[in-house]
């Protein structure tokens, strides 16, 4: 178990950071969702038929140390901390390696970090991991920037809530959906391969898509359908996906309905950087 944990830590440490910057376009925040971070997080997990999480206060305390480090060192944003820099702590350094991270620059209120992470496959993967039991969260701002983190590794329990057929989002029958990613994720190994996919609107008209499969051995073991244009509000869509997982052939067909009104605009679009 120690070797697996170290492998996860190394993998996650090199993963993407969601960065919202004020470039004058629409951003990612959805009206009508719970405002408290844990309730919002569990809204997404319930939609994916996953059990809710609880907060581990010590995780949040450690993340708060790393978010403080980010604000003190805006030129050193990555999944770790540099010893000797202002605000460096061993606890913050560990939390950074275990967490989804978020960085925002702009003079207006930032998009919600959890909504932003849900629009990135690697970040969504941690939020919707079936083995996640507890999480910690921290968000802080100064006059120029906001930083946030969500610990998605320390609270993993091996084998918990096993879902051998994977986790899909948006969930079957879910309403009030606003996303550009339809995902189907699995445990780390074996690597999933998407072998076929289609998306239709309520009239049965095909919707243009692109698709995603992970690279062999990728920790973020998720296949996905991505509409080439934004989905229309208040429409029920049906998605069909076929995948292989080791020697197994899996198929899923389900429907979901988009928000009657589109997500309200926060003028700070999502940019993803690989640090």
Tell me about this structure.
- The chain has helices at 2-13, 37-47, 57-72, 90-97, 113-118, 121-127; strands at 17-21, 54-55, 99-105, 134-135, 137-141, 145-151, 167-169, 182-185, 192-200, 209-212, 222-227, 236-245, 248-257, 270-273.
- It has 275 residues and is of the alpha+beta class.
- The strands form 4 sheets. A 5-stranded mixed β-sheet has the order 5-6-3-1-14. It has a 4-stranded antiparallel β-sheet with strand order 7-8-11-10, with no helix packed on it. It has a 3-stranded antiparallel β-sheet with strand order 9-12-13, with no helix packed on it.
- The two termini are 27 Å apart.
What order do the helices and strands come in, and which of them pair?
Blueprint: H1 2-13, E1 17-21, H2 37-47, E2 54-55, H3 57-72, H4 90-97, E3 99-105, H5 113-118, H6 121-127, E4 134-135, E5 137-141, E6 145-151, E7 167-169, E8 182-185, E9 192-200, E10 209-212, E11 222-227, E12 236-245, E13 248-257, E14 270-273
Parallel strand pairs: 1-3, 2-4
Antiparallel strand pairs: 1-14, 3-6, 5-6, 7-8, 8-11, 9-12, 10-11, 12-13
Count of distinct strands? 14
Supply Rg.
18 Å
Query: Helix/strand/pairing class, anyone?
Result: alpha+beta
Q: Could you state the order of secondary-structure elements as H and E?
A: HEHEHHEHHEEEEEEEEEEE
Distance between the termini: 27 Å
Largest sheet: 5 strands, mixed
Helix content: 10-25%
């Amino acid at each position: 178990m120690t070797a697996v944990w170290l492998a996860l830590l190394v993998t996650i440490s090199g993963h993407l950071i969601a960065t919202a910057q004020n470039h004058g376009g629409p951003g990612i925040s959805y009206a009508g969702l719970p405002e408290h971070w844990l309730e919002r997080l569990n809204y997404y997990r319930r939609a994916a038929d996953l059990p809710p999480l609880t907060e581990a206060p010590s995780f949040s305390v450690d993340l708060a140390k790393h978010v403080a480090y980010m604000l003190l060192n805006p030129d050193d944003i990555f999944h770790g901390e540099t010893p000797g820099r202002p605000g460096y702590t061993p606890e913050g350094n560990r939390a950074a390696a275990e967490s989804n991270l978020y960085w925002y620059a702009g003079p207006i209120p930032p998009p919600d970090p959890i909504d932003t992470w849900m629009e990135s496959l690697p970040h969504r993967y941690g939020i919707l991991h079936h083995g996640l039991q507890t999480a910690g969260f921290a968000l802080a701002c100064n006059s120029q920037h906001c930083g946030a983190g969500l610990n998605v590794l320390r609270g993993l329990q091996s084998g918990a809530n096993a879902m051998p057929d994977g986790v899909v989002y948006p969930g079957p029958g879910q309403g009030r959906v606003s996303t550009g990613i339809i995902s189907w994720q699995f445990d780390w190994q074996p690597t999933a391969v998407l072998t076929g996919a289609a998306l239709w609107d309520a009239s049965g008209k095909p919707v243009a898509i692109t698709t995603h499969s992970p690279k062999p051995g990728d920790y973020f073991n998720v296949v996905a359908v991505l509409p080439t244009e934004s989905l229309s509000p208040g429409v029920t869509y049906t998605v069909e996906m076929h995948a292989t997982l080791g020697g197994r052939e899996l198929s899923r067909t389900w429907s979901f309905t988009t928000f009657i009104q589109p997500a309200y605009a926060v003028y700070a679009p999502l940019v993803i950087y690989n640090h």
